[in-house]
Amino acid sequence: TIIPVFLIGPIAGAWVDRLNKRNVMIISDLLRGALILTIPLFIMSRQILPVYLVVFLTFSLSRFFIPSKMAIIPDLVAKDNLLAANTLADTTHMLGNVMGLVAAGILVNIKYIGAIGGFYIDAASFFVSAGLITMMAQKEFVSHVREDIKVTREALENSIRKSIFEEIKEGAMYLKKYDDMHFIVYVFFLLMAGLGAISCVIIVFIQESFGTSTLDLGLIGMFLVGGLLLGTLIYGRFGQRIEKRMAILLSFAMMGIWIILFTFFVRRYPNILTSGMLSGLIGIAASPIMVSVNTLTHETMPEEARGRTFSSLEAVIHLAFLIFMFLAAYAAKYVDRFWVLTTVGALFCICGLIGVLFISGKLKRREII
Predict the structure, then answer these.
(1) What is the dihedral of CA 331, 335, 341, 345, to 10 degrees?
(2) What pTM does this model have?
(3) Residue 267: pLDDT band with limits 50, 70, 90
(4) Is residue 220 helix, strand or coil?
């Protein structure tokens, strides 16, 4: 699931910039649905190795779908509505994840469905998605099939001639070219580095503090998702009034404070209601970050470079997450998990406050000029 981000992502981003993004999404969904349909056959025949190949191919196709999905948003809505559109996209994404997990937990325990039936339902969801994408108000799919086949062939030839390192370099150059993209890369790296470190220790930390395996962890997770959803809706409604970079930095500062308080109360006074409320506040504080970053990227990057930009950002996100996940795992052998989480919260808070002071100074200088 991770290898395609670095191996396929850079090339996929270059293709996305050359092709009709709507068509790329439709074809990606159809192929992913077809691939998922093969998993039950391999499982029933007790062949696990082909399943790894199917998963790799499925997530390789996702490297085409995700940049296309992110890059197409400015083509569907006016610039003034980008923040609202990204808010809606993030909200439905979170709702889909929560509802999918709940539905999966129920479906796999139904006698005539089970895990195997779950794969068939999963495959069907891709086909439904492809059908919904065809309804988007863009140029007709059929009239562009021949043109896209020609462009795809040219893109394939160009990609074969280019090495993966050249593709990565090309995408990275777009990140360096614009000042706002520097800020976005720093934000993504800080956010995913912190989440990587947190993800590695938080589960065991909560389990040890509450003395339970899954119940309290699940409830706290529900509060977190609820906070993310509520924060996204609030920010989507009132976020236009706040400068996006300032909103991101304030979110980091507040998120850091709530992480420190959450860590303290879970360790010292483990109470599910208090911990859940603090978890929800973390979600509310964090929610403006992704919405603002995606909107800022849409506003900064030219249309012809969006695919490569989002692919390069995906590489930054996963690299930061993996590096700091391993570092936190190593640190947890020698340092209490309490201090790992507190350190992440403190770094978020300090970086956010320093950034707020810096951006405030820049904005004041602009007003004077």
Answers:
(1) -90
(2) 0.70
(3) very high
(4) helix
